[in-house]
Amino acid sequence: MGDISSDNWRLRISNLKKVLDKIVDWYTDVLNQNISTWISLPDINVIGKECNSEQLGRLLQLVVGIAVQCDKKTEYIGVIMGLADEIQLVVMQAVQEIMTVGRDRETSISMTFPDSLNTDQIQILKDQLRKALDELSIANEARELADQRLFEMEKALNMLKEEKEALMQENDKLVQKLSDETNTERGCERADPSDASLKDRHYNKLQLRIEALQEDLYKMESHKEEYMAKNEILENDLMELRLKNEDLQRKAKEARALKDELDILRHVSERVDKYEQMIEVYKNRLEEMSDLKRQVKTLEERNSRLVKTNVKLEEELKRSSTLKSQIDMYKKQVQDLHTEVAEQNLRADKIDFDFKRLQDKCTILKQEKDKLLQENDRLKSELEETRARSDSESILQDAIVKDPKCLINEINNQQMESVEDIREKVIKLEHANQMLRDKLKDSDDEKVVLLQTNLGDAKERITELEAENRNLNRSMLELKSQLQDLTASGTNFPANNQGQELPEEMPRDLETALRRISELQLSVRKKDHEMSELESKYKKAVTKARQVVQNLEPLSLQSPTSRLSSVVNSNGGPMSAPVPNLYFGESNNSLYLSDDVNELKTNLRLKERQIFDLEKDLYSCKALKNMEEKLMTVAFHNLAANVQRRAVSQRISNSRSSSNASLSAAECSSFLNKQRKAQTRRLNLAAVSPSELYE
Coiled-coil regions in this chain (predicted)? Predict the structure, then answer.
């Protein structure tokens, strides 16, 4: 039984046994009732282990009986009357069962036996216990009747003894009187013999009275003998009843011992069941041990392999430990660069407005310039056409007049020379175009990678700033409400007292905030300077690109007739006959140049789109910068509000210790102020929106 330590049922059983012993002692000491003889006590083992409701009900029934019969019974009865009707009925029935001794004893005794024992043995034990309890109840009833009869007989015997003593006293008195009368009669006879007849009469009367008294005495003695015989019979019956009572008590003790044995056997059977289950579990475990041994072998082999790999990994780790320091340095540098980029973005926001304004002016100037260039080109083309017509007509006429064959040879030579020059120029332009393409591709790839990395970093930074913004907004709302509470309280303090009552942490916080503000201002100035440099470089690059485009567009747009006219004008000979088209590769070259120009235009458009995206990023960075500045101002105001609140709280704590009258007034004012604060806080929170906070 000592092996079972899974539950604390033993402690419960010991405590319940103590409670039951105290209940039995109270019944025996206070009420002079041995409840163990006329009621079956609750089974503590069943209550402690299984929490049986029937046995627990018996124990509670005994407790209710004590509550109803103790000194404080009025209080407990009042508590019972305050319960529900159903509960009152149940409690009253339990009290009546205890108060009416000897009623329903068979129903009050109910034993529970474990299922593991034999049913025949259980039935035999139950029958024996019922018979013993029936005999015990009959013997108790007979004993009570015999006690009553014995008490009555003792009463009657005492009465008879008193009557006998009274009669004996009267007899003694009468004998004394008789002796006195005889003495007087003798004296009278001596003195006066004439009164003999009177004395004889008196003597006869006395003698008759004595005889009557003797008869009564005989009757009393006969009654006494009868009562003595009855008393002996009753004493014999009492002895028999006592012997029967002792036998019944012995049987009750045997029944209790059998009950204890049944409890022990039940407990043993439970343990046997548990041990059988444990044996089955251990058998299953033994069967599983073989599989586990195999698994252990495989795991050992695997462990050896892992040890080898672990050794290799440790060697690699030693090798990689040298790289960790470099990686940490790179990480720190990357973080520093991220912070620098954020600062530069914040500085770049200031340039955004000026850049937009200049960009608008630039667009207006571009439009005017384009209009002027178009008009200039149109006028130039008209002038060149008119000049070419006049010159060509004069030259051709002179050449035809002088020597048409020389003119044709010269024209062919000039055409060949011009074709070779054009081919050389085209080859140079192709080479330059290829170089520009390679450079643009490399720069585009690098810029794309940089933009992707910058975009990822910017997104992370934006998420961090949004989280910080939310936290700061929450703190700002709290501090606003606190400030409003403080302002609503109407407590005005002089500046000197506030300065004296400021905590020591306030100067430190102010110094750190001012340092942070100065650092941010320096970083913003640096960013502004860098953005101005970048803007100048950007403008130079744009102007160069426009010049390149303007230089390439006339080559692509120039027609072969204009080139021929320029060649003829350079020779200066007249010609009236039509000139044949001898430029075989001119159309292909012009198409090739136009393709290059289109590619450059597309590249410029892509660059402009990238610039537009960068401008968008600048706008977002500017918004973040404004947000950070606003948050810094809000944090500074919150810090000032915290300091003011601490000063106010210190002032209030000092003022509270003044006097009781001032305390009552302060409490009244504080209650009113709290009501006002609640109203103002609701109004302010309803009025403030998230958009206003961000703005």
Answer: 122-389, 419-489, 517-551
